[in-house]
Design brief:
Rossmann fold, about 775 residues, Na+/H+ antiporter like fold, 2 domains, about 55% helix, single chain, alpha/beta, two-stranded antiparallel sheet, eleven-stranded mixed beta sheet, about 10% strand
């Protein structure tokens, strides 16, 4: 082992390079004790060298991350900083360090090969997570933003490149512009995950838009790659286009059905077999080899196989659970770091004119993407700060762009100076954008904020009413069904009810979320409740659709299940039971659950739609009425003014279309209102009241409008006390934080602020009057 090793490369005057290697290759060493006088000799073996390189990469990466995390730097940016530290800019300048650990050529081949394989696995998993249907089912806003965010920087970039047409090839201009204009789904998803805003409305819009942009750009990049053959030979171009089209067709005709066969072969509730997992990875690897054979990137094959895998459980989630942590935590770290190590400061300044242009090009395309995304989102009624944060997220760069630049550098399409500038741009971008987004967007207060109006007032007359009804126990089920039954579903405006049974997580660590099928009684504790809602659906003969779910989670996290479901299903109303439980005759309080009360408070501050809190006194007469088709319900509505009262009035108006309902609207006014100037809120109130004053809701005579004078809180309390015996249900607005003459002095005595002043007043009288109360709060977060 002491004999001198031959040089790994021999260069000849005619330009020929001969590669020298050992046979058999030196893989495993006998350890540092093989040659105690020269322990570093073990790094001449590929496995110890690889282990040392990975250990050093991980150590530097995590050290940088621990240092910069407090200021908001992400783990991806830390990997790139580690590459700068280990590369020619810093430690790589030390010849002994470079020759021992990261020698160009022989010292980097193994780690680059391993990390490249790991990156293909990562890209495969990202494709598994991507739902191709988003391109067709996403909202019009997401499609517009996705397309605009791609083509606006392409146009700007190509215009900028015209000034360098004599110095840059057509391929370098096209590829550089398209990649710089790309919004990669995996980059956006990773950033949203780091910022913990993936479940927010902003995060969902970013994922949908990036999916559209990513697939469009993938098509453009591959067409640009194939167009190289057009200059060489038209038959060759036709050959490769045909092979590509045939490959994609066969993939989705044969591989995707195979994936569904694997799902069918897996018993419900059982994990995917290991043999099936290995088979899928083998297909992905084989497709990578095949795409490399016809001069396409091997990563394309793995990515397309990932798209052919159905996302979500059981197959997609099984693949992600098994490999995502290892791919992102090991392989991807090595890939990002080793790729960034190829940036040499000398190359940055080797061609000043080209570098200067590259900087201008990068800045102009970024600005074009940011401005186009901002205009598209801001025009769609998104707040200024949120639109700015969203535009920055869509303009973020990451590992996908890094891979493209490294690949095109390897085939000499991008020069060393251009490559260095573009990679450093990714580093600056990945460092600054997350910090600014954190400043602009608060994930705690706006996690479930919506950018469209999901409330009853803005529901179209022919739109279905989507309601999320939350159930804790069987005692609140019938009351919720009674309220839903009064919302008057029709063929033009049917009801879609999402029932969420909330169960406290006890005796286990992992929360559980169950989507129940019809007549599914796997969870005994939910069966009775779900059966009652299914019967309600059957009684309404196609006018009502019920979807039942059970969430078993910690009480402090239950609001996330509720708000996420409301956001996912775009509900307009969320019904919550009050935390107090009355006896069946309404004469005493049987139970008072503080956990439910805290949950209601959390939902009131975060819900992405309007909310109704139902205070059910448990009257037997209501239960009996619900069983009689000819029964008449007497509903009262107390109106003072404000957006919550207008929302409550809209709900009461919908109920009034039911011929069984007799609605009385009590408008509390003060003597001072006649001489006060009308503000915008009062103008909106007056417009809402017109129809009720004319006594013509639904064209019937079942609506009564009355006005009561109230100049202080005492008079209001007297009015409320006088009407409680007259109705089965009284609807009021919460009016949180709204002061008026009629409620003066009442808030100081309020026991239940979650019900508002009037709701609290009515609830305190329940033991005397036994009337049920529905308190309505209009959607808070509307751009």
């Amino acid at each position: 082992m002491n004999e001198a090793s031959p040089p790994p490369y021999l260069s000849y005057p005619n330009g020929t390079i001969a590669v020298c290697f050992f046979l058999p290759p030196k893989i495993n060493s006998a350890g540092i004790w093989l040659n105690p006088a020269n322990p570093s000799e073990l790094l001449g073996f590929s496995l110890p060298l690889l282990e040392t390189q990975l250990l050093l990469i991980f150590s530097v990466t995590h050290l940088v991350y621990a240092t910069l995390k407090p200021v908001g730097v992400t783990f991806f940016a830390s990997q790139m900083f580690a590459g700068v530290i280990l590369g020619p800019a810093m430690l790589g300048r030390i010849k002994a360090f470079e020759d021992t650990l990261f020698k160009p050529g022989s010292g980097m081949e193994v780690v680059e090969t391993v990390s490249a394989f790991g990156f293909s696995i990562f890209l495969f998993l990202m494709a598994v997570k991507m739902d191709v249907r988003e391109v067709f089912t996403s909202t019009r806003r997401a499609k517009v933003i996705g397309i605009v965010s791609l083509f606006s920087p392409i146009v700007v970039g190509l215009i900028a490149y015209q000034s360098q047409s004599d110095k840059l090839s057509i391929m370098e201009r096209t590829i550089g512009t398209t990649i710089e204009s790309l919004t990669a789904f995996s980059v956006v998803a990773w950033l949203l995950d780091d910022l913990k805003i993936g479940n927010s409305e902003l995060g969902r819009l970013a994922l949908s838009s990036s999916t559209v942009s990513n697939l469009c750009s993938l098509f453009i990049i591959n067409i640009a790659g194939l167009s190289q053959h057009l200059h060489e030979s038209i038959p060759l171009f036709v050959k490769y286009v045909g092979i590509t089209a045939l490959f994609v067709t066969l993939l989705f005709v044969t591989v995707r059905p195979l994936m569904y066969w694997i799902i069918r072969e897996t018993p419900e509730g059982r994990p995917i077999k290991g043999a099936h997992i290995v088979l899928i990875l083998a297909i992905a690897s084989g497709c990578s080899v095949f795409t490399n054979w016809f001069n396409q990137s091997p990563l394309l094959g793995a990515f397309l196989v990932g798209l052919a895998v159905p996302d979500g459980p059981p197959l997609g989630s099984a693949l992600v659970d098994k490999f995502d942590c290892f791919a992102r935590g090991v392989f991807l770290v090595a890939y990002v770091t080793t790729t960034t190590m190829k940036v040499n400061p000398k190359n940055v300044f080797s061609d000043p004119e080209k570098v200067k242009f590259s900087i201008i090009f990068v800045f102009s395309t970024f600005l074009a993407k940011f401005i186009s995304c901002f205009i598209a989102s801001f025009w769609g009624m998104m707040p200024f700060r949120d639109a700015s944060a969203f535009s920055l997220i869509m303009s973020s760069k990451g590992v996908v762009e890094l891979q493209y630049f490294a690949g095109y550098r390897g085939v000499k399409i991008l020069s060393e100076s251009t490559f260095s500038v573009l990679v450093l741009n990714i580093l600056v971008n990945a460092t600054i954008i997350p910090v600014i987004v954190k400043y602009l967007y608060d994930p705690v207060s706006k996690r479930y904020a919506g950018y469209q109006k999901r409330n009853l007032m803005h529901l179209k007359p022919d739109a279905e009413l989507r309601v999320l009804a939350c159930v804790h126990g069987s005692e609140s089920v019938h009351a919720l069904i009674d309220v839903l039954d009064l919302t008057c579903p029709t063929k033009e405006s049917p009801n879609v009810i999402y029932v969420l049974h909330l169960i406290e997580l006890v005796g286990r660590d992992s929360p559980v979320f169950i989507a129940h099928q019809k007549h599914d009684n796997k969870l005994v504790s939910s069966h009775e409740n779900i059966l009652a809602f299914n019967q309600y659906e059957e009684r309404n003969g196609g006018l009502v659709t019920v979807n039942a779910f059970t969430a078993i989670s910690l009480p402090k996290l239950m609001h996330e299940d509720i708000c996420t479901m409301a956001l996912d299903n775009q509900t307009s109303l969320l019904l919550l039971p009050f935390h107090k439980k009355w006896s069946i005759d309404g004469t005493m309080v049987e139970d008072e659950n503080s956990m439910i009360r805290n949950l209601n408070f959390s939902v009131l501050h975060r819900a992405p739609c309007s909310i109704g809190i139902l205070v059910d006194c448990g009257l037997r007469s209501w239960r009996q009425k619900s069983m009689k088709p000819s029964a008449c319900y007497s509903i009262g509505m107390v109106f003072l003014g404000g957006k919550d009262d207008r929302e409550a009035l809209t709900l009461a108006k919908r109920m009034a279309y039911d011929p069984r309902v007799k609605l009385t609207m009590i408008h509390l006014i003060s003597d001072q209102e006649a001489v006060m100037d009308l503000d915008w809120e009062k103008m909106l109130d007056a417009e809402m009241l017109k129809e009720f004053k004319q006594n013509g809701v639904g064209g019937g005579c079942n609506v009564t409008y009355t006005e009561e004078i109230s100049n202080n809180g005492t008079q209001t309390a007297n009015v409320v006390r006088s009407i409680t015996e007259d109705y089965d249900l009284i609807i009021v607005g919460r009016r949180c934080g709204v002061d008026s003459v009629q409620t003066t002095g009442l808030s100081e005595w309020s026991e239940y602020p979650e019900l508002g002043v009037i709701g609290d007043l009515l609830t305190s009288m329940v033991l005397d009057s036994r009337v049920s109360v529905l308190v309505v709060q209009q959607q808070l977060y509307v751009a």
